[in-house]
Design goal:
It contains five helices and 29 strands. By secondary structure, the chain is mainly beta. The chain is globular, with a radius of gyration of 26 Å.
């Protein structure tokens, strides 16, 4: 009897001890599988005073799509306890206007590793990359097609990008270049153009690999002016009036538009003979790689870049072998023109899922605009740059578009092609 009572007492003691442990662990049941991430914003020396309270730092787990927004303290730092995994960390900030331009500060780091094999906290210094707001910006990109109500079929022969003079002075399109970064669509695999820096952070090269083609506005320097608050359209597919056969599409035959294809691309579905209205408004194809018969601007998740070649002509730059490269880690002979990010006036990166990896460096686009394929394909939707209400009010009503070099802030999704409203 005493033996039985002893066993019961021991069992009650063990149960009580286990219950107590479970109860204590219940306050944070995942505490044993988290790691603390300490983040410090580091601005260029001239702008060190910008390290302050209230700057938003975005953390995304690409594997799950879970996002966290942290806010910095007075020293420009923030911390979070996160589940083990790999994270993308990005931040965007801006300073006061300097001689008509606004200094922008961005940083994005992929694959920040939080694992139990790491001793202690993980400390991450984000060295903010300085760039400046641009006079000419990308206003809208329409790439995902629409549905033809006459046939009830998907229609993808139209596509365009509009550009906008976001300043208070006349801008000139002459010699401006357009291209897209590798890869055509956003990818979930590690970007081959990225590398691990001295701090173990995965970052993108400061030169951007342009895929397939580079286009350039013609002109002698002041041939194609764009007034303050004025926009124009770069036709990527079908420089004709598509509404003749599809009322859900757009008229891309207007005389103020520009054609971004040439006879080198022979696919008539995407590149029919342009409307006579656009005579003299053809961009020059200054570099082409491969044998594609249609300019492959992504219908799912494109990048778009406006840039100006510095120090030499664009033709000389693209024909210099020192400015071209093959993709790292492959045996393919395909070459890409490597454009320094300092040449870029504006860029936008579209992703179809948050689990994908970036293609543009933080100085060009610190994040991306998310454009889920199922919700947007063949519906006439586009991505567009939102209005900066504060800057517009300060400009006396001249519309100023948001330009922080961070697409998650700068862009939204429209339920129709916005050039229909003009």
């Amino acid at each position: 009897m005493k033996k039985i009572l002893f066993i019961i007492s021991v069992c009650l003691l063990v149960f009580s001890s286990c219950s107590d442990q479970l109860e204590r662990a219940g306050s944070d049941p995942y505490a044993s599988s988290t790691k603390k991430l300490n983040i410090q914003l580091v601005y260029p020396a001239k702008y060190a005073s910008l390290a302050r309270e209230g700057v938003t730092v975005k953390i995304i787990n690409p594997s799950t799509g879970v996002e966290y927004d942290l806010s910095t303290n007075a020293k420009g730092a923030c911390s979070a306890n996160l589940q083990y995994g790999f994270y993308r960390v990005s931040v965007s900030d801006k300073g006061e206007s300097e001689a008509g331009t606004i200094p922008l500060f961005n940083k994005s780091v992929d694959a920040v590793k939080l694992q139990d094999t790491i001793s202690g906290d993980v400390n991450l210094n984000l060295d903010m990359v300085l760039s400046y707001s641009s006079q000419i910006v990308i206003k809208e990109v329409y790439f995902s097609g629409c549905t033809n109500p006459n046939t009830n079929k998907s229609y993808y022969a139209d596509g365009y990008m509009s550009v906008y003079n976001n300043s208070d002075q006349v801008a000139y399109l002459d010699s401006l270049c357009f291209g897209c970064a590798d890869s055509y669509n956003s990818i979930t695999t590690q970007n081959p153009w990225s590398y691990l820096n001295a701090d173990g952070q995965r970052v993108l090269r400061d030169t951007i690999p342009i895929i397939e083609a580079i286009w350039q506005w013609p002109g002698t320097g002041k041939s194609f002016p764009l007034k303050p608050g004025e926009s124009t359209v770069l036709v990527l597919r079908g420089a004709i009036d598509h509404t003749v056969v599809n009322p859900n599409s757009v008229d891309l035959s207007k005389s103020s538009y520009f054609v971004c294809y040439s006879t080198r691309y022979t696919n008539k579905t995407y590149h029919p003979s342009p409307s006579p209205n656009l005579t003299g408004h053809w961009l020059d194809l200054i570099w082409k790689q491969g044998t594609s018969t249609a300019y492959a601007f992504s219908m799912i998740s494109p990048t778009a870049l406006l840039f100006k070649i510095q120090g030499t002509s664009a033709a000389n730059f693209v024909n210099d072998p020192n400015n071209r490269s093959r993709k790292p880690g492959t045996s393919s002979s395909t070459e890409y023109v490597m454009v320094p990010s300092s040449f870029v006036l504006d860029g936008v990166e579209v992703m179809s899922a948050a689990t994908q990896n970036k293609r543009l460096p933080a100085s060009v686009d610190a994040s991306y605009i998310l454009f889920p394929q199922a919700a947007n394909m063949y519906k006439g939707h586009s991505v567009y740059r939102v209005v900066d209400q504060t800057a517009t009010a300060a400009a006396g009503g001249r519309v100023v578009l948001m330009d922080t070099n961070n697409s998650i802030v700068d862009f939204g999704i429209s339920d129709h092609q916005l050039i229909k409203d003009e």
